[in-house]
Amino acid sequence: MKIPAMKRRDFLKVGGGVVAGAAVGITGTNVGNNLGAGGELAAVASSRGLTGAEARAALTSVVPPGKYDPFFMFASGGHSGQISIIGIPSMRLLKIIPVFSRDSFSGYGFGTDVDGVIPRGSDPTKSNLLSWGDTHHPALSETEGRYDGRWLYVNDRANGRIGMVDLADYKTKQIYDIPNIGSAHGGVFVTPDSEYAHVSSITPRPITDNGYAPLESYADLYRGFSSWCAIDQTTGHLVPEKSFQIELPPYNQDLADMGKLASAGYGFLNSFNAELSVGMSHKNPPIEIGAAKNKYDYLHVIDWKKAEKVVAAGKIIMRNGIRVIPLQVAISEGILHFIPEPKNPHGVEVSPDGNYIVIAGKLDPAVTVYSITMIKKAIEDKNFEGTDRYGVPIIPITAVTAAHVELGAGPLHTQYDGKGNAYTSLFIDSAIIKWTLGPDAGVTEKPFTVLEKIPVHYNIGHLAIPGGDTVAPVGTYMVALNKWSLDQVQKLGPQHPVNLELFDINHTPPRVLSSLPLGGSEPHYAQIISVDRLNPLTVYPPGTSPETMAKSEFATASGQERIVRADGFVDVYATVMRSHFTPEQIPVTVGEKLRIHLTNIETAENATHTFAVPNHNLQATLDPGETVSVEFTADRVGSFAFYCAQFCSAMHMEMYGWLLVAPAGA
Ligand code: K7E
Ligand code: CUA
Question: Which of 89, 156, 147 is nearest to 118 (CA)?
Fold first, then answer.
């Protein structure tokens, strides 16, 4: 809204005249001391053409240079295959962690992991070497249902994998290419004590030996899999031998969430396409029509504690290297139940106390709220209305529904503020609805009531509140992760950034504070953690291999640099520090195989160097204390000036050396 200059001035001086008001209110404090009268702030706002609300928003969210954000948002990057770390409330992009995609800045996947994370993260029986992914749902590790700041997991929606990031150094340590699933969307979500990271397939796969089956046999031969990937409690790595899957009907299992507190021990998976639509042909409609015919799909209720026991009892089959509970066993052992849910839902999100399971309608302008007490009772009483075509018992929707709350068009995802309120994103309406939970969450006055409609710009997907999916949300800030930025940013060519919007939800009604148009990635889900839960390294102990977090056998101290020829390899033990490589000359003959082991012997925080070799597609980044080994064949004759690509010191330009590849017999 444009306010004429005079009017804006008046606005600033009175009532909503937050700028003047705020400054006057804190006269004598820093603001007063540094700026004198509050009128000066008003003048700044006025000269910049800011409304009172905009100026107030700026003051509410600014984090001045040298001061820190109290929260970090870990946001997925979609088809960039990365994770972004964004400071809250400053909305500054602080770091990008490559997970599934190569990244020359961090040296991830550029000659530095010959036998490393990316190659080992592609199952050769399933895929070619994959060097990208589609990150959707980051999951911070939890202890007693709260983020504990140890590890982060994220799914690769495209290729059915999970990446694991160690929050000791914010680096990706493992990619697990999960057997039997082609794509992965139902997660990652961790159990409340990080026993498992869960993901399920969104599109089913044939269970034939070669992974192929004609679509005529879709109902019989295609299956989904709910994957429970066991987490090593020391390293955070996923352990395939301790993991298991549950075979599911070939519906499209979409989002999932973990039960907690009242619903601990359960997992909940939404699904769509109970119709088993396989796509357009001479007799079939397109999937978007075929998969939306029925009024209901099925919420999958999984008793994972029971599943653990069934696995321990050996009632499993091995399928492609993982233990699988067959569908009929899951049914007979009471591990899997269905509840009808309004057609083609998207998000399923469990309230902080675990009492309510909230299903976002997507094609239903409402959320359906199930009660875990009623679900447990229905299962106990065997209150079923028959089974689906595979024999999975169906609990009547009326037996478990606590509320059906009308919100608006296109509900997708829900977060909680820990004060009894839920916030649900509306994709089609471009809005967030704040509404109240019910008596089981302690809300009695106005249960299941819409309180606010908060506009966003535009087409919101997920939203994030600090701890908003844990047992203890901190209802301070809320970020809307919007898909379209349209008129919010100046023209940048035909591809637009996505647009994240920050809200102050301490205030009633919630107020917009700022936005972060984000190029280069499309966040789906994001989690916001209080920074005091994180405890990262600042420098590595000397000679650390980030892959093992232990001292590398190739760590080299100052004075120990050497070139050794043995077993058909030229091993170069090199050190790096401001501002030189040792050795600075690496003479070899064409065809020789090189292993260059680089140790950054700096102990100073922030003293990062790199090792970039021209024309060899090789770029290693070395943080202080880090040891990295690169392996390549000197397959072309030439003089190549390797150098440090990070401007590390006044003599950074001098920080180079020579890889001399002589012709044979020279
Ligand atoms: Cu809604 Cu993959 Cu969580 Cu995107 S998903 S928005
Ligand atoms: Cu080291 Cu530039």
Answer: 156
Residue 35: the pLDDT is: 52
Give the pTM: 0.94
pLDDT digits (tens, 9 = 90+) for 125-170: 777 889 999 999 999 999 999 999 999 999 999 999 999 999 999 9
- CATH architecture group of domain 71-533: 7 Propeller (2.130)
Please tell me if the domain spanning 71-533 has the same topology as the one spanning 544-662.
no
Q: Residue 577 corresponds to which tokens in the numbers above?
A: 């520090």
Residue 608, CB-side half-sphere exposure with 13 Å CA sphere: 13
Nearest CA to ligand 1 atom 2: 136
Stated length of the chain:
666
pLDDT recorded at residue 19: 44
Structure confidence by residue, pLDDT tens digits, 408-431: 999 999 999 999 999 999 999 999
Best residue for ligand 1 mutational test, from 363, 428, 462 (most atoms within 8 Å of Cβ): 462
- Which ligand lies nearest the alpha carbon of 610? 2
Q: What is the pLDDT of residue 7?
A: 40
- Sorted by where each begins, the domain ranges of the chain are 11-61, 71-533, 544-662
Q: How far is the CA of 154 from the centre of ligand 1 (A)?
A: 13
Which ligand has the nearest atom to the CA of 644?
2
pLDDT tens, position by position, 469-506: 999 999 999 999 999 999 999 999 999 999 999 999 99
Q: Whose CA is nearest to atom 1 of ligand 1?
A: 461
3 state SS for 64-89: CCCCCCCEEEEEECECCCEEEEEEEC
Report the chain's mean pLDDT, rounded to a whole number: 93
Q: How many C-alpha atoms does 66 have within 13 Å on its Cβ side?
A: 0
Of 156, 201, 255, 427, best ligand 1 pocket probe by most atoms within 8 Å of the beta carbon: 255
Angle between helices 5-13 and 52-61 (to 10 degrees): 50
CA distances from 72 to 140, 349, 420, 459 (A): 12, 21, 23, 23
What's the pLDDT tens digit per position in 201-220? 999 999 999 999 999 999 99
Give CA–CA dist 438/404, Å, rounded. Answer: 11
Rounded distance from Cα 310 to ligand 2 centre (Å): 56
Report the distance separating Cα 176 and Cα 409, nearest Å: 37
What is the rounded distance in angstroms from the CA atom of residue 378 to the CA atom of residue 383?
A: 5
Q: Are 190 and 141 in contact (CB under 8 A)?
A: yes
Q: Using the predicted structure, report yes or no on whether residue 23 has a pLDDT greater than 90.
A: no
pLDDT in tens, 616-631: 999 999 999 999 999 9
Choosing from 346, 425, 432 the residue with most ligand 1 atoms within 8 A of its CB, the one to mutate for a pocket test is 346
Q: Is the CB of 598 under 6 A from ligand 2?
A: no
CATH of 544-662, one of 3.40.50.12280, 2.60.40.420, 2.60.40.1270, 1.10.10.10: 2.60.40.420
Residue 135 CA, ligand 1 centroid: distance in Å: 10
pLDDT more than 90, % of the chain: 90
How many Å lie between the centroid of ligand 1 and the Cα of residue 413? 8
DSSP SS3 for 374:
helix
Helix (H) or strand (E) holding 35: helix 30-35
Query: Is 461 a pocket residue for ligand 1 (Cβ < 6 Å)?
Result: yes
